[in-house]
Design goal:
Radius of gyration of chain A: 21 Å
Helix content of chain A: over 70%
Largest interface: A-B, 23 and 19 residues
Radius of gyration of chain B: 19 Å
Order of helices and strands of chain A: HHH
Number of helices of chain B: 9
Structural class of chain B: alpha/beta
Number of helices of chain A: 3
Shape of chain B: globular
Strand content of chain A: under 5%
Largest sheet of chain B: 6 strands, mixed
Number of strands of chain B: 8
Distance between the termini of chain A: 64 Å
Oligomer: heterodimer
Strand order of the largest sheet of chain B: 2-3-1-4-5-6
Amino acid sequence: MSMADLAVYKHDFAVRIAPLLTEYSHRLVAAQTTLRDSVNQYENAAAKLQNWTRTQHDLDMARLRYQLLKSDCEAARELGNAVLDPIRRASQYLEHEVENELDKLEVQARLQDLEAAMRALEKTLEATSSWFMSVPVPV
Amino acid sequence: MPDDGGLFRDVKSTWDDFKWVVERIREIRSWIGLGTTTTNANPSEAEQTRRDILLIGPGGVGKSTLAKFLAEDRDLLAIWGQSYKESMNNETFKLADPNVEILVAPGQHHRRPTIWPQLEEDLAADKFRGVIFVGSYGYHSLPMESHRSHRLYEGDDAAFLGSYLRENRNDELAVLSRVVESLKRSQQASWLLVLVTKQDLWCDQHNDVELHYRSGKFAARIDEISHALGQRRFRAEPVFASLNILNFVTGNGECLQKNTAGYDARRQIRSLYQLVKTLDELRIWEGDAT
């Protein structure tokens, strides 16, 4: 690849990865919201089990919410792992490859958003996991 | 009949050094022995009195490798030869003493504006007992697929390596300058260990490397801390070592420089011996200084 072609490739890379980073940020934020909602819904369902009027339906719902919360945690963790590669690639681009100042600013801003979303999701996952350990399986 | 006595003595001496390194690292993992902290039954009180060790430097110099080497109870050989993966956030490594953790700051330029300002404030506020600054005479790992897409590459491998090393050495000085500015504002006794890694790549230029880190701009910046804090409250030590014996290769496996011929495991263990010995001396000094 000639130097001129390489410069074009580097600019194209910025143009294509920038929206991808934002897309991943949105997905991470959505996963965090889903996780919080899932915790709330499980807590509501579990609270009904404390009531003396509890029914078999309440118990089934609490079990269902418990399983859904578990799978939401798993999905968030998998999404977090999937985002690591694009983060590392964008980081290498910024650290070693980028030549154009505007490309640099664009990718940097979006990568910082993505990493902030990643940190927030990691903290939520960590808190949810430790809370989850203390929650008994509904029986 | 050949005399194997010399060889036997060499092997035994290397093995003794290796054993010494392993044993002394165990002691360092339980830092409390000679340190300044006391064990607190109350966790919140312990949190307030805790002073960690900050490991800082540009990306790709070996910070995480060093932290694993010091903190993780694994055989030294287990961390050798692992491929480079950049850290995205602050990483903490626990020592046996719950009052001391090693905090590794990510070194990439674009992470510095978001993560480093808080660390610098913490450093000035004496939340760290000491700093390990890691440099590597410019040999910062290149995880990218090929150096040919690097912004400094202009068609010639040797010229690229020269420009890359120069730029990275300047960056090392820029990082040290930020550390110096924060340390100058601290009140309690603290220490700075300047660790220059990847000795296997530059040991044939040892005099130049020593001059680079022991005198000139590097030493001048460190002297600023001594002037600001005084000799009793600050101590700095340089160490030259190799955490891994590896050729300087890109993520794609392209070799930019082979490691220096003759640099073997024995020399590496001697360098680690020096590193651990210096850390141990700093630990003892820390106890005496307070």
